[in-house]
TrEMBL record:
It comes from the Eukaryota. InterPro entries: C2_dom, C2_domain_sf, Rabphilin/DOC2/Noc2, Rabphilin_Doc2_C2A, Synaptotagmin. It comes from Melopsittacus undulatus (Budgerigar). This is Uncharacterized protein. Residues 1-71 are annotated as: Disordered. SUPFAM superfamilies: C2 domain (Calcium/lipid-binding domain, CaLB). Residues 56-70 have a biased composition (Acidic residues). Residues 1-11 have a biased composition (Basic and acidic residues). Pfam families: C2. GO terms for cellular component: extrinsic component of synaptic vesicle membrane; neuron projection; postsynaptic membrane. Keywords: Calcium, Metal-binding, Repeat. The keyword Ligase does not apply. The lineage of its organism: Eukaryota, Metazoa, Chordata, Craniata, Vertebrata. Residues 26-45 have a biased composition (Low complexity). GO terms for molecular function: metal ion binding. The gene is LOC101878058.
């Protein structure tokens, strides 16, 4: 019995219960990292937000950048066309433009719209709207009318709609344009458009003096070569550069727009040959 008591005392000397109490006592210390868990959870949203914010900023920069894409650079134009067959007149209502390229030092523009009937270079083919000052989102709601338009004109002519910036010193600047083949317009039916503006680079005509603006002279040349039977098949933007070092002509194919559908699905598989 004395040995048993001694063993009990020795066992008590090992302080087994206290060690069991120390283990629970360590649990509060284990809870201490739990107090850091809210900090970790607080850090996670911050890190997630910090990871998500840069793409949002990039998207905003892309949306407001004027060098990202030609469409976003120049702006969009909303207008409508109506061919009054009975009165032989073409009505073009310029409604508004949105997000025009800033042309002035104040970041705004003084825009107006010019109309040209192509082919043709007479003053009767040219009309224009009033000028709106200090705005990139002008609202004209102005109708310009061509009189004496025949069914033949509607089949072979193209309407060029140009947006320009009026300069107080007299040097007006070109912003962008769009073109509509009048054969797409049905008689006595108004058609609405909302189109991104494009920039057409004037090209020098070989063997002649002066320059051709847009595609007007090119269309005249095609009409002469093919006997006047022409159909608009789209537009192509190219760049030309003569390299003196390489001794050759460098042709850049930039892009095509409004290509005619060649497949049954309404699309095409285009390539370019020189």
């Amino acid at each position: 019995m004395a040995r048993a008591a001694a063993r009990e005392e020795r066992a008590g000397g090992y302080a087994v219960p206290p060690t069991r109490e120390e283990r629970p006592a360590r649990q509060p210390s284990a809870i201490a990292p739990a107090s850091s868990i809210p900090q970790a959870s607080a850090i996670q949203p911050v890190s997630a937000a910090s990871q998500r914010q840069p793409p949002q900023e990039e998207e905003e920069e892309d949306a407001n950048s004027y060098d990202s894409d030609e469409g976003t650079t120049l702006g969009a134009l909303e207008f409508s066309l109506l061919y009054d067959q009975e009165n032989s007149s073409l009505h073009c209502t310029l409604i508004k433009a949105k997000g025009l390229k800033p042309m002035d030092s104040n970041g705004l523009a003084d825009p107006y719209v010019k109309l040209h009937l192509l082919p043709g270079a007479s003053k009767s083919n040219k009309l224009r709207t009033k000028t709106l000052r200090n705005t990139r989102n002008p609202v004209w709601n102005e109708t310009l009318v061509y009189h004496g338009i025949t069914d033949e004109d509607m089949q072979r002519k193209t309407l060029r709609i140009s947006v320009c910036d009026e300069d107080k010193f007299g040097h007006n600047e070109f912003i962008g344009e769009t073109r509509v083949s009048l054969k797409k317009i049905k008689a006595n039916q108004k058609k609405n458009f909302n189109i991104c503006l494009e920039r057409v680079i004037p090209m020098k005509r070989t063997g002649t003096t002066g320059s051709s603006r847009g595609m007007a002279l090119y269309e005249e040349e095609v009409r002469v070569d093919r006997g006047g039977d022409i159909e608009e098949r789209g537009k192509i933007l190219v760049s030309l550069m003569y390299s003196t070092q390489q001794g050759g002509l460098i042709v850049g194919i930039v892009r095509c727009v409004h290509l005619a559908a060649m497949d049954a699905n309404g699309y095409s598989d285009p390539f370019v040959k020189l």
